[in-house]
Amino acid sequence: MVNWARMHDCCGEVDRVPELLHRVEREDDAEAWTELGFRLCLENDLVLPASFAALPRLVRLASNTPRARALAGTILQRAAGRHGCDDLFADCAEAVAEFRVLLDLHLKSRPDDYLAGFLASLAARKQYHWSAALGDFTDDFYDFACPHCDAEVTIAIGDYGRYSAIRDWNLGDVDRRDLRPASPEGLTGPGRWMHETAVRDGQEELARGITYLFGDAECPRCASVFNIVDEYAFANCPGS
To answer: Domains in the chain: how many in total?
Structure first.
């Protein structure tokens, strides 16, 4: 049983969120959903005790209500931040597991909002960095230092090309080098799940982009070759 007296929302209130949850559980109240989104997922990636307290009830609604699915997904995508609610989030483990199954079924239906569901599913699998960084590979960029010469390298994967380059703010991306995609058969861990899921659901561009993301790049400065994911992880999630 949730002790709502201790579950403040972004306004510091403890009674408004349970009232709004009761409203959306009775009917698909657009006004209540809008206010819930504000109170549970304020801007700047902030989540609060009320966000995690509400998560199991949102998951129960998520199979029938797209707004619930979207809000639960947003909460999960922000769960890796410094929210001071680790104990509350741990209590949501069963709801997260249920949400993971629900999202997989949703993805199999090939919805129009496929990428949003895919990113939420990554968060439900604790792949928070990819949930935050992954795009649809029409205009994706990843920046980090070459592990050998420390040059700032831009990785581009999109409609305009799939390359590594040195970014010049006057000239654009210069000295481009083609990326070397990973073999789908050689993918492991999160990369394997991401690729197999995209292929299963007919998301060809997403699947192709993932092979480049998990492939290798050549540094335009020193010509050394490195794995994109390894260097991204080192630069952005060194504890992984």
So the answer is: 2
